[in-house]
Records
---
Amino acid sequence: MTRDVDAVRGSFSSKFGIIAAAAGSAIGLGNIWRFPYVLGESGGGAFLLVYLLFVLSIGIPVMLSEFIIGRSTQMNPYGAFKKLAPRQPWFIVGIMGVIAAFMILAFYGAVGGWTLEYFFKSVVNQFSGKSSNEISQIFEGFRSNSYRPLLWQVVFMGLTFLIVVAGIEKGIEKYSKILMPILLILLIIIAIRSVSLPSFSEKLNPGAGLKFLFKPDFSKLNAKVIFDALGQSFFSLSIGMGALITYGSYIRKNDNLGSSAMIISLSDTFIAVLAGIAIFPAVFALGFDPQSGEGLVFKILPAIFQNMHGGYYISILFFICLSVAALTSSISLLEVVVTTFVEEFKITRRKASIIAASLITILGAICALSWYTFKGFGIDTLDESTGQMVHFNFFMILDYIALKFLLPIGGLFIVIYLGWFHGKKNVMKELSNQGVLKVGYYHLFMFLVRFVAPVAIAIVFLNETGLLKLG
Ligand code: TRP
């Protein structure tokens, strides 16, 4: 039976296969682009602390829940809930997941495009001899260009589409198995350079960047920091929308789900922290502002490369690896939509991929041009902490809705379902591979999914909406 299912839907060939694929989904722009800039804008070390707490108490349990649901049903998120709980509204999680995938991939494709542009800029050595200020200007100039962000976004989405339509995720895995370790080594090298950069100002404390990252300043802890950390942890781990239900459906029956979820989450978190160590010391040493928003790493990295021996080559290699990391994540987003369309609308994979990718690329085009053509397309709101008006463009709105609402709410439903409705026996069966493995963490896991994770998510929402005031 198992073999039939595997033969029809395919499964990963080895334990490393699933860990590599799910880690490929998790590790991406979320770690290297988004984590540092959100941490910079939102509380520094205080953000990091809350982030780590969320990964351990909510992230890992949600990831493991998704794996359990995926492997036991062998279906897409929507179909999985239809099968597990017919005539009950849990399938809404699947619908929310498809909507979240549309929104995330729309802006993700734009940033994937920035990465390709930076690969190109590295090759033509555009940053050579430029000051920090000029490097920042180059980013702003590019982002508000009339067509380049769009051009690269379309290229990035085209690559994502081609990989998914050809069903060659396994092929890309081969490259990512080589390139991801290289990315890790490059990050370590960049981090070493970053912490050893001489300060641009005599007055600056040499450890300022590390202190900003690792020393929590609790006076900065507020509802926004907590809300940001929750959204970021879901985004970075690829959880809350069923992407890992889809991946879980491909995991072999004898792989250990618990240890896989643990390894994937911890590596993802390690890479994010490492990106922080690579970025923040340089932010301070080179005189950048940690609150530079979405442009932060695209401004700092070229400046660090300018201060490195062999920076020209390192820069090219780094942006190649980052593009591949972004692609192994973007395919997992598109995959959710495609598998759902194929299985629910009974259309071919090709048709589903064309429809999904085109619609998302159009939505993404608005994101890519959110600093030019569609600049005024958005919402103006009052930032309560500074008392100033801020403009949320389309890109930011999609990011906000998907990460702050759709993912955590999806995750909330997933843990509630697993903890209260899936049945303890079924959970145990899946975790123990039908009684083969010992599951020493079972009670801890059940406690986390039944109580800790749902309550924590609910509190974060109540706190954010002001219905509950923490601290
Ligand atoms: N986790 C990826 C990153 O950090 C982004 C991503 C891929 C994602 N698939 C996802 C986020 C599914 C949420 C859900 O870059």
Note: Residues 25-26, 28-31, 104, 235-236, 238, 241, 243, 329, 332-333 surround tryptophan (CB under 6 Å).
---
Amino acid sequence: MSATGDGPARHLVVVGLMGAGKTTVGALCAERLRRPFVDTDDLVAATAHRSVAEIFAEDGEAAFRELERRAVADACASPDPLVIACGGGAVLDPENRRALRTHGCVVWLRAAPQVLAERVGADGSGRPLLARGDASSVLERLDAERSAAYEGVAHATVDTDQKDADAVADAVIEELTRCAA
Ligand code: S3P
């Protein structure tokens, strides 16, 4: 089945919570597919000339989400097929979900909150939402709040708990092949 309804999906999009491996796996997939890799957090930071943490601290989350919406739209509009890694909260916006699903094959990298907490480490690797409390509890809450959105936007799901990045990239590319069939 085509993801766009009028041809094979153009972009490969990876979504999931913080620590799911979107950046690592996205970059691996891009290398294997010989496609450019785009991370929406990097696009936002480049546009704002500030880090994501600085944008959250100085302008607040709503301002970040607005920049993120623009980054998602810009990435989706690329005429070249990309691999796009979306910041974990991008799927909360219905307009983002619609754009990603229309222009890409969307794969949800799913992991248990405890596994995600281990991956992001005690300091949350500079992620503002994880600085708001114990990473494990924040990720449990976000998992409960967001799972339906990930499920809704995704054409496929890859469970990453027991896999290393290479195995996840293999599974994601297999899903892309199915999307494009
Ligand atoms: C966020 C995830 C982060 C970043 C921002 C907010 C979220 O991206 O966009 O800190 O709401 O889950 P990663 O998922 O790439 O860490």
Note: Residues 135-153 form the longest helix (19 residues).
---
Amino acid sequence: MRNKVVIGNWKMNKDNEDALSLIIEILYQNKSLIDLPEIGIAPPAIYLSHFTEKLKNTNIYLVSQNAYFKDNGAFTGEISFSMLNSIGVKYCILGHSERRQFFNETDAEIALKVKQSIKCKVLPVFCCGESKDQRQNDSYFNVIKTQLENSLFKLSKEDFLNVTIAYEPVWAIGTGLTASANQAQEMHAFIRNEIKKAYNSEVAEEIRILYGGSVNAKNAEELFACNDVDGGLVGGSSLNAIDFFEIIKAARS
Ligand code: PEP
């Protein structure tokens, strides 16, 4: 059975003092609860190293929001997957729509990042999703299929098993619009079937597919109850420890 995971993506938010307060509140909320799903926190990269200490011996894993696909070298401003691994980062979000939109990341570049991430033993959380236009003109299944084929399906089966997928319809990210439980389930089942075709049904059953796009304390339970929704990638609502933990509780099995 797939265990659920909820990852909070802080994006480019929180100065040092606020970031510290939030992580302390998160640890406090976490303390009294049992049977929690896997929890990940993706703070801005500048805090990762410091948070390693804070999250030591807890059930909360560190997640990076990005990294570069080269081993090392003259790439000013970038961080490598091996650096992430060396400080104990477990996951890295890749292919987020904001990276695609504002930093021109292509499917091909994301494919290189996914490969390098696995090579360096940092587990990729691969984001895919369609725009509002693509949803409205009914090309959304094809869009997702192409993203999967271009960035993931060239991996060997062994490598692919390291991947977590996050379906994040771009029209739902940060907009307050959420995919309905039916829309989410429909797409997650489609993705699982594409995995089955590319690999096999055992692999398809093992891969976790998270939903992301305006998940909040009110809609999380219905979304996470869907058969093929294995947790969430949460942006805005992860910036408040109480809201974030309401979402985490909704993912308890
Ligand atoms: C995200 O950025 O991955 C995300 C899902 O954001 P939000 O929850 O704010 O829509």
Note: The radius of gyration is 17 Å.
